[in-house]
Design brief:
With 97 residues, the protein is an alpha+beta fold. The chain is built from 2 helices and 5 strands. The chain has a 3-stranded antiparallel sheet, with no helix packed on it.
């Protein structure tokens, strides 16, 4: 099986929004801390590093996420492209205050 190269173009993007850690999570294990390195990279604990197409902090607004992650795909759909957005978690209701 051929290994996939990391910089090949992809039709799938993954954008995440971090939630604040619960008090119990902070107390039980400090190494579960999540650090945002930049808009595309996070570190969990001391050594687990993950890359995404976009990383939003827990302070990001729904409007910011909509304007930077969703609206471009909406515009492409008007040009005939297909897209879908999957929202997961307790904060999936999109209110644009």
């Amino acid at each position: 099986m051929k290994r996939l190269e990391a910089n090949l173009p992809s039709n799938i993007e993954v954008h995440i929004r971090l939630r604040p850690l619960l008090s119990a999570e902070k107390l039980s294990s400090p190494d579960k801390s999540i650090y945002i390195i930049n808009q595309k990279r996070i570190i969990i604990g001391n050594d687990r590093e993950f890359n995404f197409d976009m990383v939003y902090s827990e302070n990001s607004t729904n409007r910011e996420i909509f304007e930077t992650s969703i609206i471009n795909n909406l515009n492409k759909s008007l040009e005939g492209y297909n897209f879908s957005t999957l929202l997961y978690g307790q904060t999936v209701i999109l209110h644009l205050n």
